[in-house]
Amino acid sequence: MLTSKVAITGSNGFIGSTLRQAFVQKGIDVIGLCRKPCLENDIVFDLTDITTFSKIPEDVDTVIHTAYTTTAKDLQQAFQANITGSKALFDYCHARNIRIIFLSSCSAHANAQSFYGKSKYQLEGHLNSNDTIIRPGFVIGDGGIYKRLEQSLIKLKIAPLFWGGQQPLQIIHLDDLITGIINAYFQNKTGTYNLVHPTSFPLQEFYRQIFIKQKLTPRFIRLPGTITLVALKVAEFFKIPLPLTSENLLGLKYLQVFESDCEKLGVTPKTFL
Fold first, then answer.
1. What's the total number of domains in the chain?
2. What distance in Å separates the CA atoms of residue 1 and residue 110, rounded to the nearest whole number?
3. 20 to 30 A Cα–Cα from 143, which one of 14, 68, 155, 223?
4. To 5 degrees, how large is the angle CA 197–CA 160–CA 150?
5. CATH code at position 101
6. Is pLDDT of 147 > 50?
7. Neighbouring-strand partners of residue 65
8. Which residues on adjacent β-strands are paired with residue 223?
9. Residue 184 in domain
10. Domain for residue 27, yes or no?
C-alpha cells in the first residue's frame, strides 16, 4: 500500500521540479531533496555527503532519483557525485525498504561510450527487483538540454552534423515523461521501461524540425566527428571552455533505437511538433 509521500532528488531541476508539481497536483506529499532548498518542504541533500541522507523522513515510501550533477570539475569529482553517491543512496534506501524510481537514460546500455551513459548503466545494475528504472529518450520541453540546443541553433542559424548526422534519435515530451513516472508510481510498476516515441528519425531531421519550428531555413555543415572529438578532448585537458563537450559528441555518436514501453505505462507519446 503506497503511503502517498515521495522524496525527489534534484527537485529544483528541469525534470525534478516539473515532476514535483505534478505529484502535488495529484494530492501527494512531496519532499524536495536538493543542495539549495527553495521551497517549504525542501531538505538540504548532497550525494557527496551521506550524512544528509538521514534527513529523508521515515514515512517516505519512495525516492525518485532525478539528480545528476553536470557541474563537476573533473571526472573523479563526477564519479564521486554521480556514481559513488547514487550507489550510497540506493544502499540507504534498500536498507530501509524505501522503493526507488531511478531516472536513467536511453544512452545507458552495454555499448555506451560516454561517462554519462556508462554511469547510468552502472547505476541500473545497483538496483533490485522492487525498484523502477525509467529510461527517457531525448526530452523535449521548455528547458534542459533541448532548450539550450534550440537556442544555439537559433543563434548560429546552422546545425553541425558529425558522422553524417544520420544517427537515430528517439524523443519523449516532458509531460509524457512525467505521466509515465507518475503512472509507474501509482501502479507500483517495477523493472525497466523505455519512455521513448516508438518512431526514431535521423538527427539531421531532428535539427531540421527545430529550424522549421522557429521559421528558419534549415542549414547544415558536415564536420569530421573523430577529429572534432580529439580536438575537444585536447581542449578539455587544457581546461578551455567550449559550448560542445566530448561527452556531448560521444552521446551523439552512439545513439541507439529502443522498443518503446510507453503503452505499458499508459502514455500516448506526442510527436515532435
1. 1
2. 35
3. 223
4. 55
5. 3.40.50.720
6. yes
7. 9, 102
8. 162
9. yes
10. yes
Cell of residue 143, nine digits: 528547458
Buried b (16+ CB within 10 A) or exposed e, 127-151: beeebbbbbbbbbbbeebebeebbe
- pLDDT above 70 covers what percent of the chain? 97
* 43 within some domain: yes
Pair 60, 101: CB distance under 8 Å = no
Would 214 be classed as within a structural domain? no
pLDDT in tens, 171-207: 999 999 999 999 999 999 999 999 999 999 999 999 9
The DSSP code for 198 is: S
Domain of residue 125, residue span? 5-139+171-196+258-265
**Residue 7: its pLDDT value, please?**
97
Measured on CA atoms in the order 172, 175, 179, 182, is the torsion positive or negative? positive
Strand, coil or helix: 177: helix
pTM beyond 0.70: the answer is yes
261 dihedral zone (left: phi>0; alpha: psi -120 to 50; beta): alpha
Terminal-to-terminal C-alpha distance of the chain? 39
Give the per-residue pLDDT at 199. Answer: 94
CA distance 12 to 19: 10
Return the bridge partners of 44, or none: 34
Beta bridge partners of 132: 101, 191
E strands, the chain, where? 5-9, 29-34, 42-44, 62-65, 99-103, 132-136, 138-140, 159-162, 168-169, 171-173, 191-195, 201-202, 220-223
- Give the single-character DSSP code of 231: H
Percent of the residues in the chain that have a pLDDT greater than 90, as a whole number: 82
